[in-house]
Amino acid sequence: xxxxxxxxxxxxxxxxxxxxxxxxxxxxxxxxxxxxxxxxxxxxxxxxxxxxxxxxxxxxxxxxxxxxxxxxxxxxxxxxxxxxxxxxxxxxxxxxxxxxxxxxxxxxxxxxxxxxxxxxxxxxxxxxxxxxxxxxxxxxxxxxxxxxxxxxxxxxxxxxxxxxxxxxxxxxxxxxxxxxxxxxxxxxxxxxxxxxxxxxxxxxxxxxxxxxxxxxxxxxxxxxxxxxxxxxxxxxxxxxxxxxxxxxxxxxxxxxxxxxxxxxxxxxxxxxxxxxxxxxxxxxxxxxxxxxxxxxxxxxxxxxxxxxxxxxxxxxxxxxxxxxxxxxxxxxxxxxxxxxxxxxxxxxxxxxxxxxxxxxxxxxxxxxxxxxxxxxxxxxxxxxxxxxxxxxxxxxxxxxxxxxxxxxxxxxxxxxxxxxxxxxxxxxxxxxxxxxxxxxxxxxxxxxxxxxxxxxxxxxxxxxxxxxxxxxxxxxxxxxxxxxxxxxxxxxxxxxxxxxxxxxxxxxxxxxxxxxxxxxxxxxxxxxxxxxxxxxxxxxxxxxxxxxxxxxxxxxxxxxxxxxxxxxxxxxxxxxxxxxxxxxxxxxxxxxxxxxxxxxxxxxxxxxxxxxxxxxxxxxxxxxxxxxxxxxxxxxxxxxxxxxxxxxxxxxxxxxxxxxxxxxxxxxxxxxxxxxxxxxxxxxxxxxxxxxxxxxxxxxxxxxxxxxxxxxxxxxxxxxxxxxxxxxxxxxxxxxxxxxxxxxxxxxxxxxxxxxxxxxxxxxxxxxxxxxxxxxxxxxxxxxxxxxxxxxxxxxxxxxxxxxxxxxxxxxxxxxxxxxxxxxxxxxxxxxxxxxxxxxxxxxxxxxxxxxxxxxxxxxxxxxxxxxxxxxxxxxxxxxxxxxxxxxxxxxxxxxxxxxxxxxxxxxxxxxxxxxxxx
Length: 919
Hints:
The chain is mostly helical. It has 50 helices and eight strands.
């Protein structure tokens, strides 16, 4: 499990190994059957009532009957979402290997994957087993964080029918148990079910303690202990006559107040002092083995003593079959620790120090850190975290690192240069650039003032520049990202190192918006040429770098190359991590822009499906913005305008929270577009005011990635001015926009701007300039498969298009445009470019497959004489949706009335003709 970054304690994955027989409760004889009938079994009782032992008996019984099982003993360290899931997977590995392996890869390769998706994949894998699987979770009361308890609740709530979960703890688990409060969904076992009866007490002494009690003695002991199992076990170790009521009550009358005295006088009194001393010293450990006990006590016979304690039933149980690791009963351990604080307080720091060194030596870093902190060795704790944290960051295991840092006192992190860099990297790669920037600013200030020493280390400078470059990229500052990345490369980082990889990623992002396309291609060839090193990278890191290369191609306007890169990254993300993960959604957002442009709407819908929440929560600005815009456009095309507007508002909230001006401007631009299509100029002007209010007083120089914000703003202003017939003003805005886009080399955006500029020029009477401008857009479109940008401007550009497409094929003024491209666009635009064709001839020869299924359905109903309202009622949609579809039908068929559309239907729709014959 080292690949996930948590040192697995294998002893937690099986029940404690007892050496003595246990007394079965007759009240629980049918419990195993009940467990297999219900999704959730809850065992609740205070300490010492035998919860763990009872779970172990059920576990053994189920395994003996061939039922798949899993076991996890929880501790306070598991009150962390990542660690909880890591151990949960391990507990299921033997019984559900494929599902556990799949999820383990998910966590390893996609540091931003949501745990809800992890649960979905895990539960799906468990369902595939079909056979029953019972998972035991012991000491669940130690889980306190809302996030972990919510994950556990969902794990049980959405469990497939073959999964049964048994939880045990000292208090009610915090997982909304009342939701399962039915005979079928919940089986409860409580203190009354677990406490010994008088008969159980007699059997325990006879079978376990090897001593016979008379019915009177058993009854007297039972009344004193009230069936408390630990108390009865303590009594079995006591000296003296158990028939003496006072002798019993002296130790057990008040468990909370008198247990220490009882243990001292009745359990440890006859034990040689060196053995008691040994116990006190090893009580600093949550789990103990012979080697570590020998290390911290200096006793070479430690392994023998542990075995001796177990055989004497001194509350020490083995944690594994080989009896390498042991643990004390919780009550006894509490007693030993309290006594150790009184008697050997001065030695406790040195004991923890030795334990820390031992665990570090065997690579169990979490326990090494915990004991170092307990010893007051802050620097040592920092050293242990420093030792392995960056390896985990490089493997994208951000959750483990952030969890470790959260457990360290702030003073330790503040005093460690390496830990603060680790923290900055973790925040950066977890898409928390504001936290990363704050961390870096504080770090730089402390270095400047001398609070932290760095001794002019060149490695430190390279690394700080590298992380700052990535932060700049995440905050959409491409110019700064490029400058910082170049500084890193000038300092010659080690080839193939983490610092170089991150610098390359930031460098590619910056180059994309500074016309550095050739340099980006050279860098891409070098990285891909690394072969195995490239393919062995963690999925998310590799996909992110791939997407930057694709972004460079997209900004340059090489749509075919960009689509190839994004598609490859998407396949890798889906294959290695999963559909709804960040590693798959990141390239999906970029690719969606191209699929929309190519009018591959079915493919686009599949790429966008179920990913919007992931895109908005864990994807960087560039991908998330494109994802949202593609989703909005698709929703509008499908007549779901209200849903499109809701998506706009949702994305605007996210953009405002994160200060993502690129996403905000793109969404406001889409909102204005929909409003203008609906003729609502007043709302469009209000939306433009909101967008202008969000703009900075001065744009950055150079523009960098801000050029996309300027594009959104200028296109919105120009579109509104054209609708208000202010053509000269629109033309001025668009001329300036085209000049800027040419300067930065954004050819795809330039082609879109030229389409709107041509419209503005045409309407202002500058026909020649309009045709030449539109021709440039067509030439780019022909080389890159542009379709949708023309279709979306169908009403505005139809006449311009006809003028160009109607020219003879060999006419030089056609600008080298191929007939196949123009004919394809003409068909999609529904315009007639053949002057010899009579009106109406075009309709009769259109293929029936021109319309989508919903459009054919609506046209069929129109042909049957239904009004828009009647069609809406029949299809359970709004009249506005029907109106939207009718508009699309008219555009696709190149007609202007319902009568012409019906004529086309009679000529081209076999189902209509068949219906007429039938009637």
